[in-house]
Amino acid sequence: METVPTISENIARVEERIAAACRRSGRRREDVKLVAISKTHPAEAICAAFAAGLRDFGENRVQEAQAKLPALADLRATWHLVGHLQTNKARAARETFHWVHSVDSLRLAEKLAQAAPPGGACLPVLIEVNLGEEAAKAGVRAAEVQELAEQIGRIEALELRGLMVIPPFLASPEEVRPYFRQLRDLARKIEARHLPNVSMQELSMGMSHDYEVAIEEGATIVRVGTAIFGERQTQ
Fold first, then answer.
1. Is the pTM higher than 0.90?
2. Per the count of CB atoms within 10 A, which of 1, 30, 84, 213 is most buried?
3. Which residues, 6 or more positions from 145, have their beta carbon under 8 angstroms from its beta carbon?
């Protein structure tokens, strides 16, 4: 009978593939952060991944993360919000997450800033870019990113660290490569403007289907769920 791989075994395989992609592209393994996307998976699965060495976890929804966190209070983990965030959830997101990858408007950025605790550290954020201009997906169009970056750079409570993309799902990872390359080039153009309080050091791109290609194109953060936890559980 075929055995089901454990979460630790899955992580080991993902790590091997990340290391290989880094070697192919002449990069160091430590330059790529692996964020385990734990949406729909229980706290027990997150604990297993933590025990296997992971420290960064991503959730799509504020409510789901808040429901899990009481059972994970002992874990010294870093939490990333990778899903679309409504402005009315900005305060809850600020209280729950250490990073927000999905800022797509000045209004949302301002709401996150308004929710900052007095004397608190700046919240690292990324601008989500909708490179495929898909109506069903959040994110700003490529033509709007530079203006939004300049606007966020004026907000003291936030620290703009880079860009994020969820490209169209295509059968072959190679077909997705141009989107990753486009995001990298867009980040370089913004970096060249030397905007105050704006850094483009992070590129959050690549998921279970295509993270190796994303690394080859410069990803500094890959968001891997299914390859670690298995198929998404129904809610």
1. yes
2. 213
3. 127, 129, 163, 186, 190
